[in-house]
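Residues determine shape. Next comes a sample protein:
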Amino acid sequence: MMDYLVTPWHHTFMQHAFIAIVLVGIICGVTGVFVTLRGLAFLGDALSHAIFPGVVIAFISGGNFLLGALVAAVIVSFGIGAVSQSGRISNDTAIGVLFAGAFALGVAILSTQRSYTRDLNAFLLGSILGVSRQDLMLIGIVGLLVLSIVFWFRRELTTVSFDRTFAKASGLDLWFYDQLFLLMLAFTIVVSLQTVGNILVLAMLVTPAATARLLTDRMQVMIVLSASLGAVSGVIGLYLSYYQGVPSGSGVVLVSTAIFLLTFLFAPRTGVITSRVMRQLHHAHPERDDFQAPAADTSPTTL
């Protein structure tokens, strides 16, 4: 068993891959909580496609595609915020317009190159085994920035996520925190591209957070659980990729999805099967018992 766990670590590229997937799992898990609470899964998918031109330009110029994606992500996120603030265009409409336009621009630029299929596949499906020391440094720096934003603005981000009306009445600048959220989400997507790819990055954002939501109602616990689930799913998925030969991104997402399904079925309080078994066995149900009148006090009978 120990050989099974230790063998992949003998390779330098696997060491880099494990470090990268743990970092990305934590970053996606933390950011995904706010994406899930806001109901903006579509935004994550749109941003992951809208940064395509930055990746293409970096590829053509021979630069680091993560840096190219980062620049494009910042431009698109601020563009979405600017267009949606006009009052006549809704947020989801702005997302749809810029997402489609940016992705089409990336495809148009890429089509001018004679051979791009292999590089496009790496972008779409991820290439975690090709993570370098420089990539790890960039992932670490961006990850630290994202986690710092969450730490310093956790109360404001939580308030805006749960109740925008109350947040506005409290004097919070909704535009500023919306832009901060978009920037945080864009950074998270960028550092996830090389590990799970453009197609599967949405799963890393949403699935661990959705699993954590089934297990707790407390925000801090949810963030810790989501980050832990993201990291654990990444490690297990990478082992699955190493020994079974499946693509690393697919392995990570499949493990994360399996954990979600198990939680959905067997979570202690919210699991579908668990709740049904509890009802059949007449076990106490805390939420149900709160609405029931207390039983009358009966004294023991004497014989």
